[in-house]
Design a protein that fits this description.
Layout (H helix, E strand, L loop, with lengths): L14 H24 L1 H18 L1 H4 L38 H37 L1 H16 L2 H12 L3 H28 L2 H8 L4 H37 L11 H8 L8 H27 L6
């Protein structure tokens, strides 16, 4: 005589099981959105950054003028609302070569996002790879990688950027490389710490005993646990990348002056900014608000996910 239960005939991947797995994910997203809504500073920062991304992607359609067009007859026009030597078609005025400042601001946001996002991707990939090697294999590899990270963190990163850019020359690729060179160590230390904590846990040891390889352990256990910390570092790296672009371009070591960037706009204005204050004011405000937005959003991510500083 045999007895069977309903569960014995139930398929393993049942709709009920799938719905139970999806429900926690949806509730986590709802909780994050509610937390973001309650944090006015983070919400305002997110809205500002979304608008900046939209402006950058639609620059060729919304910019009123060609950002590189030189018009000497309309040089150094004041912003419209000052009513002093202004022209209604140049809302934020023009620079010393007659180029429209508003159009240059809009197009500069494109390069700012390209540099910042590319730097985060490169530094993140390098740092995660180095952290995984350091944490998983340990011993002399851990010692070498962590001493390199300590050496990089011991020097002011902007000074390193100035030295490297002076040696290899200016350019977009070079700038991305320099930012990644000065930021990879933060990712490496976080990933290494997570690897060391996770690899000794019971469920990881059980997975390894059942035949799980290092690749499966990395992508299923290590990286998901380090995701929140890496998001915090990424938000701050985005802010640092914008700051570095402006600083290095101001010294003539960043992106070539022919390309509109916020840093290049301030660099062009340094000789006349006391008389023509609007040359540097608007790109300076763009840098300030963008960096502040990334920092505030990073603070919210850190608080929401309860990320502890390593």
């Amino acid at each position: 005589m045999t007895t069977t239960t309903a569960s014995a005939h139930q398929p393993q991947n049942s709709p009920q099981k799938d719905s139970q797995e999806v429900a926690p994910k949806r509730s986590e997203w709802k909780r994050a959105l509610r937390s973001l809504y309650r944090s006015k500073a983070a919400l305002a920062s997110a809205i500002f950054l979304i608008l900046m991304v939209l402006i950058a992607f639609t620059a060729q359609w919304i910019a009123p003028h060609d950002p590189r067009a030189v018009d000497i007859s309309n040089r150094m026009l004041w912003p419209v609302w000052t009513e002093a030597n202004s022209n209604p078609i140049y809302f934020l005025g023009t620079d010393s070569l007659g180029r429209d400042i508003l159009s240059r601001l809009i197009y500069a946001s494109q390069m700012t996002l390209v540099v910042a996002i590319s730097a985060v991707i490169v530094s993140g990939l390098v740092g995660i790879f180095m952290g995984l090697i350091s944490g998983f294999f340990g011993r002399w590899m851990d010692a070498v990688i962590m001493r390199l990270a300590d050496l990089q963190l011991a020097f002011p990163s902007l000074l390193i950027g100035l030295i490297v850019m002076a040696l290899i020359g200016s350019g977009v690729i070079e700038l991305i490389f320099v930012i990644a060179l000065t930021q990879w160590a933060y990712y490496a230390r976080i990933v290494r710490s997570e690897v060391i904590k996770v690899r000794e846990t019971e469920y990881v040891q059980a997975s390894r005993a059942l035949g799980a390889g290092n690749v499966r352990l990395i992508f299923k256990h290590v990286l998901p646990n380090a995701l929140a910390s890496m998001l915090v570092v990424a938000s701050f790296t985005l802010a640092i990348a914008i700051y570095y672009e402006a600083s290095l371009s101001f010294f003539g070591l960043g992106i070539p002056t022919a390309i509109p960037t916020w840093g290049n706009m301030i660099a062009d204005a340094r000789d006349v900014m006391l008389r023509n204050w609007w040359f540097a004011l608007f790109p300076g405000l763009a840098i300030t608000f963008t960096v502040l937005a990334f920092n505030l959003l990073g603070d919210w991510v850190r608080d929401h996910f309860d990320v502890k500083a390593e």
